[in-house]
Amino acid sequence: PGIGAWADAPVPSQSATYELLREWGLPISSHFTVVDSADKAWVFIERQGRDRHSVEHEIDGIVVKVDELALHDELGSTSRAPRWAIAYKYPPEQVNTKLLDVRVSVGRTGRATPYAVVEPVRVAGSTVEFATLHNQDVVKAKGVLIGDTIVLRKAGDVIPEVLGPVLELRTGAERPFVMPTTCPECGATLAPASADDVDLRCPNARSCPAQVRGRVEHIGSRGGLDIEKLGEVAAAALTNKSADGSNPPLETEARLFALNLDDLLAVDYFRNADGSASKNATELLANLETAKTKPLARLLVSLNIRHVGPVAARALASHFGSLDAIRTASVDDLAAVDGVGSVIAESILSWFEVDWHRDIVDEWARAGVQWSTPGHTGPGAAGEATGPCAGLVIVATGSLEGYTREGAEEAILAAGGKPSSSVSKKTDFVAAGPGAGSKLTKAEELGIPVLDAAGFTRLLAGGPSAV
């Protein structure tokens, strides 16, 4: 947050504004200066870059602003940023550490992903012990061996990334990583899902503990049913076998909404020291009860059907109004829905062909989950979208402050707009944050209005006239 507009400012400059805020008792960073030339600004940038990790708060760059407030209005802004300010971003910090091991994790889709276990090292403000390696081809391409001294950074100052080995520090004791042939969680044979799939996957979708755990966590996520007490730890507690080897409360997600207090009391995480139900237990049951009446679109996302994200789910829910109508629709009927298409339609039909998938839907229904939209009269009955952005095609790309990728899509839909994943002549607006890349370039080539996060928020609230 900051000062977006200030009529008749009582001070003449940005630097005086900081002093005024300090007088009001607000915390102000001491790491700023006023200079009278670009050369002096660069000296400050370089000095702060050398000392960036000794500052009491993390910084990834410096913003250079015109100090005189009167010039801000005169210089104005583009749709993306003010003309009176420019940011310089420091390159990501790189450090050396030891690659202790390469392990493999399995996600909710069965994808087996190698990751690096490194000697704990401080980088970009936090201690890193793990880093992604994506797949076995990436491990080979980076040329790292277990036992190597490696170069590590945080991509975008956020995600730990292995860059490569320090070859001159090799001792000969290092060894190559060998991708396992079986799932580390359930023992099933790993294999690509298709001939062109670069990833190995566990085919045991129904009962692989890692996949069940991932799906349950996804159900509770903000993009799913947004169940506050169903996070990573709770999902693991519900799906992991106990120390004595007894089965967990959930062997698949089918019984999720049928869970009761006795089920939870069998798990340490949901018990107090005296054996009584913990707050985690009672609040989870209350959260699950509330989730039974969440909108159909969210319920569809929570089923973990491949390719069915918030946009497709909202389109399906709006058009069909109930899960019964969706599961009995033909592939052509599904594909004809705007925002769905043939790939998603085929994926939906394939999902319902699996018996244990149908069991999930049926068990949830028996537990009280409402698989229909109240008042919806059937396929095609929904009217045109309404809202400030009705009829607008909007692409959100890059890191938009205040929005996750799914959150941006949800916000566009809630405002009546149509989110799109690609930029074309049909696109009305592009909301672009850092890392926008080729979508931003194409928008500029086509002359499509580009908004920053603040402009995106104004568009959602007030429509095109607000930007």
Question: Could you walk me through the main structural features you see in this protein, from its secondary elements to its overall organization?
Answer:
The protein is of the alpha/beta class. The protein folds into five domains: 14-89, Dna Ligase, domain 1; 94-169, OB fold (Dihydrolipoamide Acetyltransferase, E2P) (Beta Barrel), CATH 2.40.50.140; 209-291, 5' to 3' exonuclease, C-terminal subdomain (DNA polymerase, domain 1, Orthogonal Bundle), CATH 1.10.150.20; 296-366, DNA polymerase, domain 1 (Orthogonal Bundle), CATH 1.10.150.20; 393-466, Rossmann fold (3-Layer(aba) Sandwich), CATH 3.40.50. The protein has 17 helices and eleven strands. The strands form three sheets. The chain has a five-stranded antiparallel beta sheet, with helices on one face. A four-stranded parallel beta sheet has the order 9-8-10-11, sandwiched between helices. Helix 5 crosses helix 6 and helix 9 packs across helix 10. It is globular and about 70 Å long. It starts with 13 loop residues before the first helix and ends in a 5-residue tail after the last helix.
Task: Itemize the secondary structure elements and their pairings.
Elements: H1 14-23, H2 38-51, E1 61-65, H3 69-75, E2 85-89, E3 94-106, E4 112-123, E5 126-132, H4 136-142, E6 149-155, E7 159-165, H5 209-220, H6 232-239, H7 261-265, H8 279-291, H9 296-302, H10 310-320, H11 323-327, H12 331-335, H13 341-352, H14 355-366, E8 393-397, H15 405-414, E9 418-420, E10 429-432, H16 438-446, E11 450-451, H17 453-462
Parallel strand pairs: 8-9, 8-10, 10-11
Antiparallel strand pairs: 1-2, 3-4, 3-6, 4-5, 6-7
